Amino acid sequence: MLEVCLLGTGGMMPMPRRYLTSMLVRYNGLSILTDCGEGTQIALRQAGYSPNPIGIMCFTHYHADHISGLPGMLLSMGNSDRTEPLLMIGPRGLERVVGALRVIAPELPFEIKYREIKEASEDIAFEGGFIRAFRVNHNVTCYGYSIEIKRSGRFDAEAAKAAGIPLKYWNRLQHGQIIEEDGVRYTPDMVMGAERRGLKVTYSTDTRPTDSIAENAKDADLFICEGMYSEADKFEKALEHKHMMFKEAAQLAAKAQPKEMWLTHYSPSLFKPEQYMDEVRAIFPAAKAGKDGMSVDLNFDED
Amino acid sequence: MLEVCLLGTGGMMPMPRRYLTSMLVRYNGLSILTDCGEGTQIALRQAGYSPNPIGIMCFTHYHADHISGLPGMLLSMGNSDRTEPLLMIGPRGLERVVGALRVIAPELPFEIKYREIKEASEDIAFEGGFIRAFRVNHNVTCYGYSIEIKRSGRFDAEAAKAAGIPLKYWNRLQHGQIIEEDGVRYTPDMVMGAERRGLKVTYSTDTRPTDSIAENAKDADLFICEGMYSEADKFEKALEHKHMMFKEAAQLAAKAQPKEMWLTHYSPSLFKPEQYMDEVRAIFPAAKAGKDGMSVDLNFDED
How many Å apart are CA B104 and CA B286, to the nearest integer? Predict the structure, then answer.
């Protein structure tokens, strides 16, 4: 099971009852946090989580509303006696920006590892899955992220029998091991069917629409996408500051066909996002206006 | 009128329903903010204020819970098209720390002026009053602040008449001007009584009790004081990390005799400060457990 929580839904500045946009994904004991603006640690606690198990942090870019909560989050992780290293992923400049912010969080009981993304798309593996960073189109270098969980194929007992593989090796083959005995070699592909559909959540914010976003969100279980402005007269502003309209997010989702899309990163001027969802759903029906603390448990298909 | 609002009452980390300790003082169109931890701009808006009119910011010290909200606050001030310069006051290192944090808030439409406090006590004047910074005793250099509004004496019409001062000069003398005419010199002290009691609010946090705190809070209208821990078994912790117990704050107040004391900067482990106030009030009766957003309007004595 992959648990996804949209901790906040605000853009630009945190507000009473709307924290800054940030996503927490939990899988198999690992928490992955994407973006950490001012107040994210409060939103995290409000949603019932703790900072301690965050093993990976992804940053889309270094505008304050996406990273200003980092020093406090690091200190709270440190205060909870965490000692495991923390992996940070983000565009070029990551170590420099984090280093500067750590002027007020200089001492931590855990190591920080940095992975600076330079290519248009890069994959970073973790146990059971991988994170794909893909470049988007903002006024500074900015990345979207997909978090994917792999699912192996079904074990084919008939194939194993037909190949004469001793029963005692079945379990190890099923877990991906290669076995050699008396000059005979047994490999997992002899007993395993094709890889099955896994789980995927895609997060993209602070960008104009791009083909790459639609490709990266393709068939995602959940696509969390920026919808900074809803009203047509804000389009100039969206163009100027390289943000996205509700409708544009809907059009991306219509191309990508995720199972569901949630909008987020609302302008402070946007009071009731729900009011504008009809025109979004006219383009892509499985759309929801994200709310602070909204969460979902994603499970493998039953097959 | 001096308006004082305790924006938050938390220490160490911001929590749902308890923002970090910060005080907003408003006088005559000027807002003075003391400390700005993560979430202070949210607390400020929650209490109904705006970041724009903040003309002076005081920092007690540079632990994250007292300054981590600065980049976001500066950006919010910039977004509201503020152009007036901002004066920052704090211990040595102010410009270096703020400079580092501004890696995520590099462009602002207003100038920042720095006043680094080096002496045990320093006064900084503003129109109508002054701020007194006084060193306290924490594990890094830390200052408390008093904000004082001056009040001139009463105009003494009898004295003016007796001295034969022409009526046309009375108003100017009353406003502090010196007048010379035909070799005769009229000075305000000829017509004004002794300076009357003004207004004073004193703020001290992150410190062990010191005589200087009691002296500086002497006769304040409001003394906002750290009460990090309430239970006796936390005393070792208070000593180690140089914080204050509820009782110790009460003893300081008993010496200083402010009109009222509010406790703040509660440990995250302290859920209901009100439960421990009886023993505080046994020592100093005019004590309140501070709450987020608690405010008071201080007025000159009626005399």
Answer: 43
